[in-house]
């Protein structure tokens, strides 16, 4: 939890996704006003989705830029404009945002269409990495996304996370260290 909160300080889409999830969670308490919390959750989900789409589009443009300049003999990071390099968001913040938004949609919707798209984007992001991040948070997000993907399969999803290394014993892959 602490790692996600620290990460949200530098990621507006993750911050909004956490607010949406919190609003939804608060809506289940006996003293809450359901209409207000539902509105609040929807409001923050929409903000998070908008910011996430911007970030995904920027990352896609950055990947294309790197791909175009990879063949010139210089490392692509050396020639990236500083503004573009500064705007790249960590994979973990994108994956965490996708997790929260997909989880929320699975709770409130019988037809999680956005979750299908988001989980596919998460899979593309994770599979495009030559060397996946080896942090505890990244590995935990992989497990959480796989669990969500299993739920989305029942609503017509493809199960892309389930078919990635299906023989792996997920819980054995997470280091026994704290998230702090």
Can you describe this structure?
With 180 residues, this protein is mostly helical. The protein is built from ten helices and no strands. The protein has helices at residues 2-8, 12-27, 34-69, 76-79, 82-87, 91-108, 113-127, 136-153, 160-163, 170-173. The longest helix has 36 residues, at 34-69. The termini are close together. Residues 81-89 and 166-174 have low confidence and may be disordered.
User: What is the end-to-end distance?
Assistant: 9 Å
Query: Number of helix segments?
Result: 10
Estimate percent helicity. over 70%
Multimer state: single chain
Structural class: mainly alpha
Strand element count: 0
Quick take:
The protein starts with a helix and ends in a 7-residue tail after the last helix.
Features:
180 residues, mainly alpha, 10 helices, 71% helix, globular
Secondary-structure blueprint of this entry?
Elements: H1 2-8, H2 12-27, H3 34-69, H4 76-79, H5 82-87, H6 91-108, H7 113-127, H8 136-153, H9 160-163, H10 170-173
């Amino acid at each position: 939890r602490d790692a996600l909160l620290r990460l949200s300080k530098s990621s507006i889409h993750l911050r909004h996704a956490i607010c949406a999830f919190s609003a939804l969670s608060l809506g289940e308490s006996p003293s809450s006003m359901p209409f207000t919390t539902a509105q609040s959750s929807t409001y923050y989900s929409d903000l998070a989705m908008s910011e996430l789409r911007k970030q995904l589009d920027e990352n896609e443009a950055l990947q294309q830029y790197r791909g175009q300049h990879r063949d010139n003999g210089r490392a692509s990071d050396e020639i990236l404009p500083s503004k573009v390099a500064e705007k790249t968001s960590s994979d973990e913040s994108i994956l965490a945002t996708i997790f929260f938004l997909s989880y929320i949609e699975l709770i409130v919707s019988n037809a999680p269409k956005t979750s299908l798209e988001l989980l596919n984007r998460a899979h593309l992001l994770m599979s495009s990495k030559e060397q996946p991040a080896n942090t505890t948070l990244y590995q935990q997000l992989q497990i959480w996304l796989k669990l969500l993907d299993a739920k989305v399969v029942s609503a017509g999803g493809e199960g892309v996370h389930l078919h990635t290394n299906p023989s792996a014993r997920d819980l054995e892959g997470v280091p026994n260290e704290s998230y702090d």
